Amino acid sequence: MARQIVVVHDGLESAFDVAKLDRSKLYGQRTRVPLDPAGNPCERADLTSDGSVLLRRGMTAQGYFDEAGYWLSEKELVGLDERGAAIERYDSTLGVGQLAEIVEPDLLLDYQVFSVYTMEEAKVAAPLRALLEEGRILKIPFVYRGGFHQDAAFLVLNGEGYFALIARRSPSEWCTHDAVVTNTFDDAIEDDDLDFEMF
Q1: Does the residue 28 lie in any domain?
Q2: How many CB atoms lie within 10 A of CB 125?
Q3: Which residues lie below 8 Å from residue 97, measured CB to CB, with a gap of 6+?
Q4: Does residue 81 lie within any of the structural domains?
Q5: Are residues 97 and 68 in the same domain?
Q6: 193 within a domain of the structure (yes/no)
C-alpha cells in the first residue's frame, strides 16, 4: 500500500498517496556505475577507523556504535535538547489522520522548505478540495518516519496538481535602519602586516 498523507478538516478525512519530488523526476538523471575487473557493479562501503567493521549503504541509518563499540539500534536512542533534557519522540504521521489548519501564505516566510512531495487523490472530501482550489494553504504536522523532529507540511494545489511542502521553522531576524549594529570584532587583535598582494 502506498504511503499516504491523511488530513482531517471540519471532521472530514481526506487521503493522498505521496511520492517525493526530486530533480531526477523533473529533469531525468544519468548514473555512473563503477565496475570491477569482471564487469560487476561495485558498491560503496566505508571502513571504520579501527578497520574492524565494513559499513554498507543503509547500515548507519539502523543504529549507532557507542563510545565502547557496542551497537545501539535507532529505537534505543534518546533525543536530548541543548540543556541535556530528554525530548519527545514522534511517531510517523503517514497513514494517520492529522488535523489541518488554514494558514496565511506569509507564514511560509518563517519556514525553510527542504522537501516537496507530489500528492495523488485517494479520497478527498469536497470541502477540502474546494479550499485548495481557492488557493488556500493548509498546514499539518509531518514526521516521515519516527524521530525527534516534527516538521510541518503545507498542502497546496496548482495547475500541476497537489503538493506537500515539508518545512522546518526557521524565523528570520529583522532589523531596521535605526537599529545600532553591535561591533563583534575583537579590538585587541594586532595587525600582523599581511601583504594581500601575496595572495
Answers
A1: no
A2: 17
A3: 6, 7, 8, 13
A4: no
A5: no
A6: no
For 98, other C-beta atoms within 10 Å of its C-beta total 19
Exposed/middle/buried for residue 138 (C-beta within 10 Å: 0-12, 13-18, 19+) = buried
Cβ burial, residue 102 (10 Å; 0-12/13-18/19+): exposed
pLDDT, tens only, 128-175: 999 999 999 999 999 998 888 889 999 999 998 999 999 999 876 767
Exposure of 148 in the CB half-sphere (CA atoms within 13 A): 11
Is residue 125 scored above 60 in pLDDT? yes
C-alpha to C-alpha distance for 131 and 156, rounded to whole angstroms: 10
Q: Is residue 146 a contact partner of residue 91, using CB atoms and an 8 Å limit?
A: yes
pTM (whole model) above 0.70:
no
The range of the structural domain enclosing residue 50 comes to 45-76
Quick one: 57 and 144 in the same domain? no
Is position 199 within any domain? no
